[in-house]
Amino acid sequence: MTDGRDGLRDSRPIYLYCLIRSEEERPFSAKPLKTRGIGENGSAVHTVRFEDLAFVVSDCDDVKYDATRENTVCHQKVIEEVMDRGFNLLPVRFGTIATASRVSTTEERIRKVLKRRFGEFQGLLRDMEDKVEVGLKVFWKKARLFDDIVSEYRQLRMLRDRIASRPSSGLAWRDERIQLGTMVNNAVEDKREREAPLLIRPLHPIAYDYKTNKIMTDTMVLNGAFLIYKERLGEFDAAVNDLDERYGDRMKFNYVGCLPPFNFIEIVIRWDEEEESAPPGGSSATWLNKKSDRLQSSSSSFASTAGERA
Question: How do the domains of the chain map onto residue ranges?
Answer without folding.
Answer: 7-129+294-304, 143-191
